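Example record

The entry below shows one chain as it appears in the dataset: sequence first, then structure tokens.
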Amino acid sequence: MRQVYLRVEEKGKITALFYEKADTLTEISVEDDFDDISIFDYKVSEGALVRLTNEEKEEFYPISMAEKQESILKEMMAESARTTFLLALPDAKAATIPYCYPSWQSYIGYKLEKDVQVEYDGALWKTRQEIPTVLENQFPSIDTAALYDRIDVEHAGTLEDPIPYANTMEVFKDKYYLEDGIIYLCLEDSGQPLYASCKDLPRYFVVSPRMA
């Protein structure tokens, strides 16, 4: 332990730190490795250092309006840069970080523009059209395929790397899709999201010859 000497004002506010004793200073014991620079994160209470709450920091050491606005500006710039970065990500990469996008629930009662990406139930979805008002009972699903496309992690669509199939997915000719452990070959482009299982869509799918 070592001693430091503090100028202390009302409510235990610390205004200066010294290393030599004086009658007007308050003597405090601190650990040998105490970071003296952090002293203004504390107040003196009953002869000991007590960490300040956020409210006490604002009361003891208020910042100027210019500093507050500068801090707000930095936060706004960081958020803008983050938003720009997320918007620029290709869908396949965006699908690997769905929770970095706004949740679908945050738009309930509000308008959603076309091609906006939202997270719902751990997956990433993109609006197919403008939605004037998002309704709580119209969440992304097979029943709202006209409104939302599910975005999945990119797969080659080959026999070795088939695309995991999900309802509401648009499929493409000569690509391979995986559902319930079975690999299917797509026979033609769907041109729109499909609403049933591969096994129930013989127009579009046939079991891969290698699995038959």
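Notes for this example: The chain has a mean pLDDT of 90. The chain is about 15% helix and 25% strand.
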